[in-house]
Amino acid sequence: MQIYLDTANINEIREAASWGILSGVTTNPTLVAREKGADFKSVISEIAELVDGPISAEAVSLDGEGMVKEGLEFATWHPNVIVKVPSTTEGLKAVYQLARKGIRTNVTLIFNASQALLAARAGAFIVSPFVGRVDDTGVDGMQLIREISQIYKSDPEIKTKIISASIRHPRHIIDSALAGADIATCPFKVLQMSMRHPLTDRGIEQFLADWKARS
Question: Which of 54, 96, 177, 196 has a Cα-to-Cα distance from 123 of 20 to 30 A?
């Protein structure tokens, strides 16, 4: 399973990229808005210099025609740009039209398997089930990943990838991999948490103490 970073913060992306584990980046209007004063096109271009992989740039139009127009513009920014659209009927129209033009899409805000199936049929490159938000409703978000994975694997015509989104903690990453997700997109703090364990810290402290006491 690949790891993407879910952010528009260049410093976070630069740091995560230096670890050698980053395969792509997902952004959305909320994340871009947090980087006050940042120009969207400039942010995407700068990310592309740091990460050699898919970069999701989200359209803000609500109608299919508007999404297509935005998507065509985004696609000129860099070959790695993936056009992100919502899981709506208008979003499906945009996915279908953009796919016919060879432009890849990420269908976001997926909350049930039927949305994922229809997105794949329309030609989505990636679907983004929001496991954390599903958990918030009292339903197991990972069951959604398992259902989508099973449906996709049962149909050889479907090449759409599953990106587990709304990741809240390190266990979500592991469970996503076990459930069949192709990608997990995570906030930077979750990636940091994933590399921490009290036994690791304790082991390092012991090794250093033993080294200092060797004489």
Answer: 177
